[in-house]
UniProtKB/TrEMBL annotation:
PilZ domain ranges (all copies): 108-169
GO molecular function annotations of the record: cyclic-di-GMP binding
Domain of life: Bacteria
Annotated protein name in UniProt: PilZ domain-containing protein
Pfam hit, one: PilZ
Length: 190
């Protein structure tokens, strides 16, 4: 997600925080950006206050509250250049490790067909073998020995599809034209 402060990187970490006027309240990080670290808390805070937080996997963070709206507040971290750069790299590594990308909501029932081996024809015309993990009216999850670009068009059996996600040794593809829900059963063939 982007805003006027550049990209935001989601990261969810619990924190125990305190200010000079408020002792020991809980907060949780929500994201980091060039703007600072964004938190959520049930405590209502005042911009301009100095804040200390003990954040899981980060340690002690000394900051100033720059903005507070409702339950959200944004802080700028205090410290010198090298320490801030190291802290930013650590936050980014934790953000990547959490991989909080939103998984699309599945609305179609998935089944595991009896016929699991299928021919997958790539955009360049080459055919490779794929193993169907599951299938629904709108898409298929395949194990395949190729890494394909997101958005690539492939043919799974006789059905045209687009690659929409990757996972270890496989991919998820959405059919260009969905099956009728009644046509999805364990004896179906692609």
């Amino acid at each position: 997600m982007k805003d006027m402060h550049g990209p935001r990187h989601r990261i969810i970490l619990p924190a125990l925080c305190w200010t000079a006027r408020r002792r020991d309240f809980y907060a949780i990080t929500t994201d980091i950006s060039a703007e600072g670290v964004r938190f959520r808390s049930s405590s209502l805070l005042i911009p301009g206050e100095d804040l200390t937080c003990s954040i899981r996997h980060i340690g002690l963070l000394h900051a100033r509250i720059d903005r507070a709206v409702g339950q959200e507040f944004v802080v700028s971290v205090r410290g010198d250049g090298p320490a801030l750069a190291s802290l930013a790299r650590h936050f980014m590594a934790l953000s990547r490790a959490q991989d909080l990308s939103v998984e699309p909501i599945r609305v179609d029932r998935r089944i595991v067909p009896k016929q699991k081996v299928v021919t997958v024809t790539l955009e360049d015309g080459h055919a490779v073998s794929g193993h169907v993990l599951n299938i629904s009216a709108s898409g298929v999850a395949l194990l395949i020995d190729r890494t394909l670009e997101l958005g690539a068009t492939i043919q799974v059996g006789r059905k045209l599809a687009r690659v929409v996600r990757h996972f270890t040794h496989g991919l998820g593809a959405a059919f260009v034209e969905s099956f009728e829900p009644g046509d999805v059963h364990d004896a179906m063939t692609l």
